[in-house]
Design a protein that fits this description.
Helices cover 37% and strands 27% of the residues. By secondary structure, it is an alpha/beta fold. Helix 3 crosses helix 4. It is globular and about 50 Å long.
């Protein structure tokens, strides 16, 4: 279980302080496919960076099974980060390394032995349907295949949580459908909790069982996806769903 409690993030810039997140609280249950949706600049990416500990929150807690990740440092922080697999927007693949080498990269950083690395890479490439592309380079892959490599790499260290930043934003509708089906498969087979940051309503509706709507750094609405789509309570949710005029 992930509990976000009163999370806040303030950036200090030359022009002054910018509040990116404020008093954000939500509980994400084990096994959820949880959507975070909002307009551009709402705070979605800041939330993701705080969750994966690339940004330290200014206040509040991020509890993973009762442990406050926001309070960790040093070796404890590095260990906690391995529990959060991240798929970044744009894939972030290493272009000079093969598909297999990209997937193996976090394992080699963790100093796993070669036999364990090779076995895990083989297992993951079979899971994402790319066993036959192990020796290919990212430049030889389609967008959907690159996303599958990114997913396999994010799963390499057997994380409890998979964070996906706009996982389908650069994909055509058919490829989007196949990637979402893969995410559902990963959720069911591995029991990984998935958090999807997106601005795409269709993605949330098709895959997420629960969701939160973020606006100006605030969680303005949260709950079961079907219920929010049926009867949105916040103004921004109604705008996003086309149920209120701008």
């Amino acid at each position: 279980m992930i509990e976000i409690k009163n999370l806040g993030k303030v950036f200090t810039e030359k022009s002054g302080k910018v509040v990116a997140l404020r008093n954000a609280s939500v509980t994400i249950n084990d096994g959820d496919i949880f959507g975070v949706i909002g307009m551009s600049g709402a705070g979605k990416s800041t939330l993701l960076r705080c969750l994966c500990l690339l940004e330290k929150p200014s206040e509040g807690q991020i509890l993973l099974n009762g442990r406050d990740l926001a309070a960790l440092s040093g070796a404890d922080l590095r260990s906690a980060r391995r529990q959060m697999g991240v798929v970044f927007q744009g894939y972030n693949l290493l272009m000079q390394k093969t598909v297999a080498e990209n997937v193996a990269f976090p394992l080699k950083l963790g100093k796993y032995d070669k036999a364990a690395v090779d076995a895990r890479v083989k297992e993951l490439l079979e899971l994402v349907g790319l066993a036959d592309r192990a020796g290919s380079y990212p430049s030889q892959l389609s967008g959907g295949q690159k996303q599958r490599v990114a997913l396999a790499r994010a799963l390499a260290s057997k994380p409890q949580v998979l964070l996906c930043d706009e996982p389908t934003s650069a994909l055509d509708p058919l490829t989007t459908k196949s990637v979402l089906e893969l995410l559902k498969d990963i959720n069911q087979k591995l029991g990984v909790t998935i958090i999807i940051i997106t601005h795409e309503l269709a993605v949330v509706r098709s895959i997420c069982n629960r969701m939160v709507v973020i606006d100006n750094g605030l969680f303005v609405e949260q709950g079961e996806t079907a219920e929010i789509f049926e009867d949105p309570q916040s103004e921004v949710a109604r705008l996003l769903l086309g149920k209120e005029e701008v």
